[in-house]
């Protein structure tokens, strides 16, 4: 079963608001994660301009030798992307599900400030469950 | 796998947990009464209700997008239709219709068939000029701002309660 290496959530200005790594592959220190987040934000924006297809919403999948990067951008500009083993399935569904968890446990928390780093325990708990059950639950989605 | 299409407001409303409507009406009424007591000026209360609605709207819009699966609207007409048919249905459980379009298509009225906020409410004469449901226009303003629809400052929906 293919594995997820890490999950990033970036706000509409490109700042990293959430980072979680799963497993030792691709683990990075805080500065590097911030760099990756801003880099991805800019590349995503540039790709929308470069795309030969009209109405392009930006990069959805980046495939490399050692990893795949799946990205989901909501209409509000928040991006969720996951770095995983090449060939991992159901990542789009996982990202949509994480978006739903975000709208529930982060946005409905009145003490969460918009666009700020996410420090919501309920979100962490539910996210771990989702990523673990990922292999089983998503196959049935 | 083909991407899922947009879901109807009815379907989403049926699938979420619901609360007693009278509790909702009473809670909102308590908020408005408390604001009137604290602020005394009807205009101030209107502003506060709009601000509260704005804070709700900026958070609500992601929930709306996640559950309803709508794609980006092409023009303001479509936006208004989606708000009325899907948005109000999904969150308040009531249908709404869009009327009164102006010539340029930049201004319209969204009319709620049956507004749960104003059940049992009668505005006294001392509160003339109070936009009792101003929170709703704040919600729409906040939500539209997050998806980059520039809303004009005159987005004030006036709901006449008790009529």
Automatic annotation (TrEMBL), chain A:
<dbReference type="GO" id="GO:0005783">
    <property type="term" value="C:endoplasmic reticulum"/>
</dbReference>
<dbReference type="InterPro" id="IPR007233">
    <property type="entry name" value="TRAPPC"/>
</dbReference>
<dbReference type="GO" id="GO:0030008">
    <property type="term" value="C:TRAPP complex"/>
</dbReference>
<dbReference type="InterPro" id="IPR011012">
    <property type="entry name" value="Longin-like_dom_sf"/>
</dbReference>
<comment type="similarity">
    <text>Belongs to the TRAPP small subunits family. TRAPPC4 subfamily.</text>
</comment>
<protein>
    <recommendedName>
        <fullName>Trafficking protein particle complex subunit</fullName>
    </recommendedName>
</protein>
<keyword id="KW-0256">Endoplasmic reticulum</keyword>
<dbReference type="GO" id="GO:0005794">
    <property type="term" value="C:Golgi apparatus"/>
</dbReference>
<dbReference type="Pfam" id="PF04099">
    <property type="entry name" value="Sybindin"/>
</dbReference>
<keyword id="KW-0931">ER-Golgi transport</keyword>
<dbReference type="GO" id="GO:0006888">
    <property type="term" value="P:endoplasmic reticulum to Golgi vesicle-mediated transport"/>
</dbReference>
<keyword id="KW-0813">Transport</keyword>
<keyword id="KW-0333">Golgi apparatus</keyword>
<comment type="subunit">
    <text>Part of the multisubunit transport protein particle (TRAPP) complex.</text>
</comment>
TrEMBL record, chain B:
<keyword id="KW-0333">Golgi apparatus</keyword>
<dbReference type="InterPro" id="IPR016721">
    <property type="entry name" value="Bet3"/>
</dbReference>
<dbReference type="InterPro" id="IPR024096">
    <property type="entry name" value="NO_sig/Golgi_transp_ligand-bd"/>
</dbReference>
<dbReference type="GO" id="GO:0005783">
    <property type="term" value="C:endoplasmic reticulum"/>
</dbReference>
<dbReference type="GO" id="GO:0048193">
    <property type="term" value="P:Golgi vesicle transport"/>
</dbReference>
<dbReference type="GO" id="GO:0005794">
    <property type="term" value="C:Golgi apparatus"/>
</dbReference>
<keyword id="KW-0256">Endoplasmic reticulum</keyword>
<dbReference type="GO" id="GO:0030008">
    <property type="term" value="C:TRAPP complex"/>
</dbReference>
<dbReference type="Pfam" id="PF04051">
    <property type="entry name" value="TRAPP"/>
</dbReference>
<dbReference type="InterPro" id="IPR007194">
    <property type="entry name" value="TRAPP_component"/>
</dbReference>
<keyword id="KW-0931">ER-Golgi transport</keyword>
<comment type="similarity">
    <text>Belongs to the TRAPP small subunits family. BET3 subfamily.</text>
</comment>
<keyword id="KW-0813">Transport</keyword>
<comment type="function">
    <text>May play a role in vesicular transport from endoplasmic reticulum to Golgi.</text>
</comment>
<comment type="subunit">
    <text>Homodimer.</text>
</comment>
<dbReference type="GO" id="GO:0016236">
    <property type="term" value="P:macroautophagy"/>
</dbReference>
<protein>
    <recommendedName>
        <fullName>Trafficking protein particle complex subunit</fullName>
    </recommendedName>
</protein>
